[in-house]
Design a protein that fits this description.
Elements (H helix, E strand, L loop, with lengths): L6 H4 L21 H9 L3 H23 L2 H18 L9 H19 L10 H4 L10 H19 L3 H12 L4 H8 L3 H22 L1
Helix pairs in contact: 2-3, 3-4, 3-5, 4-5, 5-9, 7-10, 8-10, 9-10
């Protein structure tokens, strides 16, 4: 892959690029493998399209793992910058999505290893769960939903990092056991076990809250 400028130099980060259909093609006609293949050939516009596709997903994963907006933004930027550099080494154009999820997860785990074992005292449940937030005409119900999200946020923060990653990747990012195992460097059987323990602990926390 030969290109004269990096994503940082071209302005890919932190702004999203416009939708990119490719030359002479309407939006939505290019599959991801084709876009990745073009990016591997040095097409920066193709890579900008991948940034647009993945940066929101990766930010939500990192924010839920770390409970810190600045650290989550750093993880996403580092992951996507590394993704540009890693493109030539990907043996399959369909491997990019798995690579960025794996890299972002491991960068989050590195941050957590450097931290204290104590969960954050102050969190932003609305920011952690924007796609799940529900507004009700009943203000009491709205307050109850917000309290449930806060309880879930705190319970998630108290999980061991590996269990937290398993739960997030499975429940909110729809990753397979094999994909999660690849991200964490464990077997699918171990993923299943960690996920079961995470679900049990979260269910217990929600029962206690009620």
């Amino acid at each position: 892959m030969a290109t004269a400028e990096s994503p940082e130099e071209s302005g890919v980060f932190p702004q999203s690029s416009p939708a990119w259909p490719g030359p002479d093609l309407p939006p939505g006609t290019l599959d991801e493998a084709t876009i990745v293949a073009r990016a591997q050939d040095g097409d920066l516009t193709a890579f900008e399209h991948l940034v647009e596709r993945y940066q929101g997903r990766l930010f939500r994963l990192a924010y839920r793992m770390l409970n810190d907006r600045g650290e989550a933004e750093d993880v996403v930027q580092d992951t996507l910058t590394a993704g540009w550099r890693a493109l030539p080494g990907l043996d399959r154009s369909g491997a990019f999505g798995g690579w960025v999820y794996r890299t972002a997860t491991n960068r989050c785990l590195d941050v957590l290893r450097r931290r204290s074992a104590h969960p954050e005292a102050s969190m932003d449940p609305a920011g952690l769960w924007p796609s799940l937030a529900v507004q009700s005409a009943d203000p009491h119900r709205t307050a109850e939903i917000a309290a449930e999200f806060e309880c879930l946020t705190r319970a998630l923060a108290e999980l061991p990092p590996g269990q937290r990653a398993c739960w997030l990747l499975r429940e909110l990012h729809d990753q397979s056991y094999a994909e999660i195992g690849s991200a964490l460097g464990i077997s699918p059987v171990s993923v299943r076990g960690q996920l079961a323990r995470a679900r049990e602990k979260l269910a217990e926390a929600m029962i206690q809250w009620h």
